[in-house]
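Weekly puzzle thread! Below is a chain. First person to post its structure in token form gets bragging rights.
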Amino acid sequence: MPHVLVAGKIHDAGLAVLHAAPNITVDLVEDVSVASYSPLIHKADALLIRTQPLTAREIALGTHLQMVSRHGVGVDSVDVAALSARHIPLTIVGDVNSLSVAEHTLTLLLALAKQVCHYDKSIRNGHWDCRNSFSAIEIAGRTLLVLGFGRIGREVARLARSFTMSVLAYDPWLPDQLFAEHGVTRVTNIADGLRMADAVTVHLPLVGDKPLIDRAALSVMKPSAILINTARGGLIDEQALAEALQEGRIAGAGLDVLCEEPPDMNSPLLHVADRLILSPHSAGLTAEAAMRMSVSAATNIINYFNGELDHSLVVNPGVLHERDAPGQAQ
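Winning reply:
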């Protein structure tokens, strides 16, 4: 009888999928932390995990572990190599939250362009005359640079074009035809795109430990530019960004993801007023997306034990063949 550990609160629809499956038992730990799930992983045949780390240490504790299902699409917090060494497949969900993340990206962009938070704070402090600053801008006719043109990046481009923005996109792994099909202009050099852009939104994976948007990248952006990150913490040098915002070298930033989550309360970003909007890694957590994500993550587990796993959702598909090889059973 397979036993599933759900590490972190998920939508009830996903739990219903697991509870409805015959011959499966479930442990649920609602807290999203390593400390809360690691004491229970030794009993688990399958692990459904949110955003908390899954390191080689926890994987070693999971002596019965046969598969891991990520409640999302990012795998930066998971030691994929350690799972592969044990021939344990790691699955992600399908395209369940692209629209939610794209809408959140445009929300941050519009809120910054229209000075929503600044105006709200000013009114509450008795400064109605803030309306005469004429600091809000229109995004129509301005240029948006989309860094990463996968499903979310393409949806962001579609929404931005509906606001009559001109869209540039960077993604070195895609063919030219795809950019043309979506009505965007391809750029092959990030710095060139940064120089042209009135707004920049990041939708690339984190590779290594070097930020994509570092001091040098920030230095070539327009002083009037807005920077958005709804992808991964670490893609932007947060210290450099805080300094650029405080010194007025860029106009504003919206971050849904941070290097440390939750952030240290002494983080310089938390002391940047007006020019920065933060959200708690919630871009993909609409009610609709949370339901779809939980169902997809739970279904991956059910399908694995039924021998019906969709291999396109497996991050390390090679282990599926290795498990079938002689002498490779768990």
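Puzzle host: Confirmed. Bonus trivia for everyone else. Confidence is low (pLDDT under 50) at residues 325-330.
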